[in-house]
What does this fold into?
Amino acid sequence: MSEKANTSLIMSDAASRNQRIANLLGRAFLFLITSLSTFAVFFIFYFILKDAIPFFKLEGFKEFFTTARWYPSGSPAEFGALPIFLGTGLVTLGAILVAVPLGIAASVCLSDLLPFHIRQIVKPVIEILAAIPSVAYGFFALVVFAPLLQNHGGAILSAGVWIVLGPILALIVVVSGDLTLDKLRGKISPKAGAAIVFPILGTLAIALLYSLSSRLSGVEISSGTNALNVSIILGIMALPTVVSVSEDALQAAGRELREGSYALGATRAETIIKTIIPASISGILAAVILGVMRAIGETMVVWMASGNAARIPEPIYNVLQPIRTLTATIAGDMGEADHVTGSSRFHVLFAMAFCLLAFSFIMNLASEIIVKRSRKKLGK
Amino acid sequence: MRLETRKLLDKAFSGLGLIAIAVMGIALLLILTPIVWRGSKAFVFKGTIEHRRVMLEQFDRGNPDKFTREYTEITAARAPIYKMMEDFEAETIAQISSMESQMDAKKDRAKELKTAARALKSDGKADEADQLEAEEDRLKDEAKELKSRIKEFKTARTEPYDALHEAIRELLGPMPGQRTPVLLRQQYGQTRWDRTLVKLHEVLYTEEWDYSNADAMGVLVETPRVKQFKGTRLEPFFQYLEEHIEEMMRPKTTFYWQFITDKSKDSHIFGGIWPEVLGTIYLTLGAMIFAIPMGVIAAIYLCEYAKEGRVISFLRICISTLAGVPSIVFGLFGLAFFLNTIQVSDSKSVLAGSLTLSLLVLPTIIRSSEEAILAVPRAYKEAALGLGAGRWHTVMTVILPAALPGILTGIVISMGRAAGETAPIIFTAAVSVGAPLKIWETLSQPTPALPWNIYNLCTEHEAVDEIRHVQYGMVFTLVAIVLLLNLFAILMRARISKKLRG
Amino acid sequence: MSEEITLKKIDTFAQRDEVTSPTETHIEAKDFSLYYGDFEAVRKVSMKIPKRKVTAMIGPSGCGKSTLLRSINRMNDLIPSTSASGEMIFDGHNIYARNIDVVTLRARVGMVFQKPNVFPKSIFDNVAYGPRLQGIKNKQELSEIVEQSLRQAAIWDEVKDRLQANALGMSGGQQQRLCIARALAIKPEILLMDEPTSALDPKATAKIEDLIGELRKQYTIIIVTHNMQQAARVSDFTAFMYEGVLIEFGNTKQLFTNPENPQTENYITGRFG
It folds into this structure.
């Protein structure tokens, strides 16, 4: 409307300058706030390293990483953290053994098997598993699970064998039976072959299961707070991470790929195993890495339910013995070491924290790179 | 492979997937069931008269007249057992004194004999004197034996009786007429019926570990305590106690919702968990005060202002690194930076804990806010800009309101995370015992908090088994807080996606 | 598009006052080019857009007509790595000059988008958004502007009883007219319309077209459309663009009945595009 006195399009130099400065300042402010997380990362590295270095200066590296005597309050104090590193590794490995097969199977099920409305029910279950505070998991492990393991250890172990190995052996029987029948083709009729081969293999499998479970049912667990307990609980805690990240990866593989495979007459299992999983393997790898990070960085569960014994289990794979982890050591010893700031006993905890930090940083970077690369590969 | 096998394998494969999902669901159930079931018993349970007494005397709650009436009846119901105990004490004393008088009589007689013997000796009747001396020795020996028997009798009576006395005190509280114990926990009997039954069992039976078989673990042997009191006035005591325990304790279904809002008395033996709940609320809200502005502003910058490039991808790497830092490392950092370096407070404090937690949840808030902002249709932004709104104005009036539900979802989820984290507050904010803080005290004072005190109560408390219900109650409260927050987020997200689809 | 409506509209076009040559120029492009990165989306376009007339821009998809339209209020600034050369002159200034206040420019050049993009706010707040930006806070004044704008956009009668209702509850056609009202509330001189009816059904389209007929009395309107009948029905002048180049620009009736350029003829007779 031309009768209205329109504001001029041109800003005066001063106004223009003011606006530009205001703009710049605003941007600078926003940028500053945003980079706070960068500062935080640097500060974390700096402050952890600052208190970690005195330890290495005082005690060197060799004892810390290679010896197995952990007596930080003894005189002379001994700082052999090898059992603690091994303990961390052991429970992380255990957690991964629980979380990865379950997690990948569940994510496949979520992305390719379940109808939409059931998925809508399962997803909140995963979210709730992820949301339960770690101290609640720790409480469960210590107050409910540990006494169970201690009192009914043998029964639980043998039931576990049936539950875990049962389905796997059944699959192996079916596959190997089928392969044998393939070899025997032409020599005997397939029906007769099947009638001979499957019962033999089945009996073998059941006998194996039975002997294993009866051997395990005699085991007495002297302490319910041990590596097995912690591994299982940590595995459950890492599950949601593994499931949701790898499900994303499987979804990203796309419809076209699936249709292509189905169109060639592949079954759903074959499509998933031979096409979808290889296509999304990097995403799944990233999921595993994130699961490892979740397990390795967890404090409360291991502190409460691992037994906190800083010695190497004998034999080393004996998960029924108590162990100790880096996180639990930091949490447990800081309370005592806090009063003696400046001593090796205080700094050794920072050295451990630095190892944790460095490890998770590398893992995180690796998963980022893997995900980025896979995105490029998928052209997204 | 044969087609049938392929089909079978396909089915087996689906089965494995379903098993995995089922395992997940079962795990969730297995973990939540004991927490919810036993946790709810901290709120709803059969409370005894002692609970009502604690409530009245310590929390000034309940009807004093009604209580007094009830308590009179209960005192009457308890009177017989106290009477039996008094009788037993009196009987024992009488028995001892009768034995002592026997002993004294024998001693006196021995003394008499001695003087008599001496008299006879001086009279020269050595034979008779010897006879008397032999008699005297016999009496002396008898007196000595009696003395040791009295000693034996005393220990045989008093040791079990003291143990019984202690067990009864734990069950019913101090006896009438006894001096009030110093410790609060000793001033009351069992407040809960389930604990009452446990303690009753301890009164009725003595426990001993049998290690006679060196190869196996020790075996617990229980013997009825009544055996120790056979033939005494306490023999009917145990049966009477067992039969009349309900009259003595009057269990009533109690709904103790104040468990959340009551202070704890005598380190959680009585009362509720308000200091912990309040501490958790302070820490969570404190973390949010710092994390929300920082996180949302960062998300706005990343979505609306930043030009993709090296700086931004570096920023993003830092954010994801921050997300991957183990929580215990955050705790150490909080200690080393907020407390030891810039000294936000002299000791651990809610402030330091909140700052540490805010760093922990920052990446989550940034990411979810970013997602929410990116989900706002471009058209809104164009419309606002087309109407002559500046960039900042567009963000504030159009984009943020539209993204708000999504941002809130992220915030609510991170609140749950902040409320449940333990490791970051161990060194920065949490203490085991403390009073509820005033709001200004949060700047300088540490606080109890649910996650930390759950750990503390179930590992370091001196009476771990006595207060299981408190531990479960705390876990239940914490899990309920976190899950309610998450439920809220899930529902909100469902509404958003419905809106976007509709 | 239903046959009946099309015929009726073509009639209106025929009865319109004949405009043979551009009158007063409102906006002028001089050798104007716009780049997305290296890609030249608009190539050295020169044209004078007349005041208080409807100018239509037609051409096949991707010909740069929308880009050119969005260049007029610098909406392309939002897309990273765009750059412009040449001049776009409005009110005596090149709007791509350094010291131009883009916010004022956009307040003086209103825009209506392809899809109705009402804010998820009340109807009243949608229309009042622009005036509030300009610092009008007085409730009385705001309601007057809102009513006036809604009347101008011919939607007042439909919404006057539910001004506080959420605008997302309206039908698509109503939403688009609300968007027009919202654009009018900032009292612009020029109204840019980027395919304003492409997301609407024929009935709603007819209403919008009627509205354009009303609005041309007060505003300079530039409309991008890929519906040639629509261009013929509503516009006084038409510009045909192809691959970023302005092929032909002139009186609508003349361009449709007697195009000078064979490419234009091919396009409007449907031989390509």
